Amino acid sequence: MEFQNYPIPSGVHAVPSHKLDLRPDSEVDETLDNPAPISDEKNVWFFWHSGYANMHPYTKRNIRAWHRRFSRQGWVIRVLDRQASSPLNVANFLDISDPGTFPRAFVDGTIGGEYAPQHTSDLVRWPLLLKYGGVYADVGLMQIGDLDRLWSDTIGNPKSRFEVLSYNAGSVDERSLTNYCLCSRKNNPLFSRCHKLLLELWAADGGKTSTEGMHSSPLLKGVPLQGQGGDLSFEENGKRYEHEEVTQMLTDYIIQGQVLSLVMGLVDEEGGWDGPTYSAEHVYAINYMVGSQLINEVTAWDGKKAFALMSLELPKEGEVESEEQEQARVIVERCLQKSFGFKLAHGLILRVLGDTLGSLWRKHKGSDNVPGTYAHWLRYGTMYWCQDSVPPALDFKVIEPFKRGPLLREK
């Protein structure tokens, strides 16, 4: 991005240019296609089945921004894939034939269902973090806050009590970490148990090829289904999906989140695990609404409204700011001041809520990157600016467990 004279919100400062990789996109892409060898735990992992070159333009911009912001601070960004000849094939980083790492459906390439790419992506997250450490993020996550500072203050600091960093979808009393941003060092005990449980769910009934029905597994009994707090229903192709069915669909879709919740709420004396205590003492959980969904909160999850506002041009010199421009300005300023990231929503949520900002940026190529618009101002800020402070952690207390008993057996 060339220099733009956008206003810097209060509480935000410009990043010194020597800390940014400001080379042309083509040169940054060459680095992303040929990342440095793994040398420490400052890794940012992404996954796109067909590889970085085949990603949508707006998500490529997300990845480049991660690299431009943090590579000069020692972070290496890698977009892994499943392309046979690719040096970034998952098989070059993990043993894809190991049943202790991947379920049979991943090994055989038989993962099916409408959301097979998402579930393939889910299955590489914990193995990568357990073996190498670092950050796993969805390609749709725009990073805003100072990842390097927060890492250095928490997970990367031997004196810190924190071992896991993520967003928490819900109140301080809920255990609902999002899987679109997971951070830890190698061999994390929470993620290790989560991974074992996820593999057990995939192994049920002789081996699953999708996550359909996993919400009803007795191993997850006691954990509230996803979306319980809302009134979710929708109609599709003449069929009405009521709230209970939608929560089951959402839970199957985000089964990795359900697994996280169970393990955080598990007391397994046989396995030497106290999830409620571990979570209260070692998980740095950021409020997900302010931390990563602020645009959706401000627009009441109206994707068309968010897209229209972000596509507006800022008022030119001498022009009076319109009501819509004021709304868009407030969104950008609040995101740059308060949010650690912004997750562009895709997948099953489109069936429930309709188009999102992310799906509309996908449909309208380049609309997120038009100079002079609020979308471009936001993108510019995520690359060139940084917040003065880091987001606070929710004050987790020890909660009553969801389950008492062995991780991989019923009570």
Automatic annotation (TrEMBL):
SUPFAM superfamilies, per the entry: Nucleotide-diphospho-sugar transferases
Highest taxon of the lineage: Eukaryota
A Pfam family of this chain: Caps_synth
Matches recorded under InterPro entries: AfumC-like_glycosyl_Trfase, Nucleotide-diphossugar_trans
GO MF entries: glycosyltransferase activity
Gene3D superfamilies in UniProt: 3.90.550.20
Name the UniProt record assigns to this protein: O-glycosyltransferase
